[in-house]
Amino acid sequence: MSSNLIRGTFILTLGTFLSKFLGLFYVIPFYSIIGKEGTALYTYGYVPYTIAISVATAGVPLAVSKFVSKYNALEEYEMGQRIFRSGISLMLITGVISFLLLFALAPVFADIIIPEDEGFLSSRSDVIGVIRAVSFALILVPILSLIRGFFQGHESMGPSAVSQVVEQIVRIVFLLAASYAVINIFNGELSTAVNFATFAAFIGAIGGLAVLGWYWIKRRSHMNTLFSKSKGQIHMTTWEMYKELLTYAGPFVLVGIANPLYQFIDQLTFNNAMVEAGIEKEQAETILGILNFSTHKLILIPVTLAIALSLTLVPVITKTFVQQNFHSLHNQLTQTFQILLFLTIPACVGLLVLAEPMYTLFYENLSEGTHILAIYAPVAILFALFSVTAAILQGVDEQRYTLLSLLVGLLIKLSLNIPLIHWLQADGSILATALGYSAAILINLFVIKRTANFQFGKVFRMSLLILILTAFMALAVFSTSYIMEIFFEPVSKIQALMIVLPSVFMGLLAYGLISLKLGLVAKLFPSQYQRLKAKLLG
User: Is-contact 403 261, C-beta < 8 A?
Assistant: First the structure.
């Protein structure tokens, strides 16, 4: 299979994992600075920003990755260079327009999120301020994303990986320093600290752009040599290039904002629905912060592989599909699904089993947080499956069905969210999300089967084996945590850490040893397994 898929996946996975790792662990000091009162306000700014950034790029960065990969496979290298040059100007224009729109629409969002100031933790002016602070990042992030897409189209994942990590480091350093200074040095308002924290996205983008600029200078001569080898047999006008690009871009933007759109539905409906269900306004807003920030940060860690696979799959599958090499395509799809499930399922189940000490370790010992994390953790498997199945559909030119599946999922979420919250409170919101994603995934799988004539038999058999292995792992994790809780209670971060570390170690040991014994590691990661084996034996 492709060593390119595995190698590219591991490079991008490493970068994405480090970025997510930093994005997870910064919440420990950040939460201690702003507390649970500030987390809901923080998400009020970041969810609209995430949607706006996807609209600003219009899916162009990943579409460029597919466009470049397609024409590189045809040895028409100059086409990728042309779309890159014009794309930079387009991203700058759309970025500025999106910044101005989000800045101007902040009061409208605030009126929907906080219909009245009285009784809620955040005020209308607080929400306006945090949305406007984060909107500045829209000016730079589209250009940053486009350059990453160009490198990925050349199957060069290093620049994306390194720039992600640097961008995250710069953002987090500024975020923590600024929010700490506002609260603890200048005795400022909580809303001011959160405004600086969201503005950190703009500062981080500057750091990411600096890294990509360095890579571009370093690889410019190689790129020029490649462009000089272009066949020059395909001639397209600028409009024709953008017309093709836009057919790719639409589904990309929708897939990119799938999760934020689900969160945005909660942001618009959760507070009022909870109040109607008999929950106090302050408690409702606190639970929304737990749902959309605290637990969401944790459950996204198992999805890291899916994000990396999605980014890597597009150029690789596109190349195989264009070459009509269906045997190789089927092997790529089988191994992709198997690797995804092999890593994601046990991670999500482990998070479920260790919900209380994990939430305590990152935030505080809070019964609502523990409960929501335990219920929410398995849904991360659906997040991962949707990301990868959507990427596969884009790779085989079936983008229209990605749009259909997403819209069906969102319609289910929107239709069921309020009645399920009335019935089950926060659990109802999670259930509505799970039902929406499940419907979207089933549509994607059906289209993949029909379009690529792909048989899921091998994936299904591997899934059953992974579930059995996960059950053994869960037993090892639960037994270890049960023993550790005899000596430590998960009421403080230190005691929670003393429970989490040995439990995670025993889970990894049990799952890893059984997988090695059954030959799963050698089957799923052949080249990596052989290199590791050679180093250990030689």
Answer: no
Query: Looking at the domain assignment, is residue 178 inside a domain?
Result: yes
Nearest by Cα to 169 from 212, 215, 216, 208: 208
- Cα separation, 286 vs 281, in Å, equals 9
pLDDT in tens, 94-105: 889 989 998 999
- CA gap 417, 161 in Å, rounded: 36
From CA 88, how far away is CA 82, in angstroms rounded? 10
Residues 6+ positions from 344 with CB-CB distance below 8 Å: 302, 303, 305, 306, 380, 381, 384
Given a contact cutoff of 8 angstroms between Cβ atoms, the answer to whether 269 and 346 are in contact is no
Side chain identity at residue 42, one-letter code: Y
C-alpha span between 30 and 287 (Å, rounded): 18
Distance in angstroms (rounded) separating the CA atoms of residues 193 and 135: 16
Q: Which residue bears the tokens 């490493």?
A: 14
Sequence-distant (6+) residues with CB within 8 A of 266 are: 288, 291, 292, 417, 429
Kindly report, residue by residue over 495-504, the tens digit of the pLDDT.
Answer: 999 999 999 9
Handedness of CA 328, 331, 337, 340 (dihedral sign): negative
53: domain range? 26-254
Residue 123 Rama label (left phi>0; alpha psi -120 to 50; beta): beta
Helix H or strand E encompassing 38:
helix 27-57
In a domain, 176, yes or no: yes
**Has residue 159 been placed in a domain?**
yes
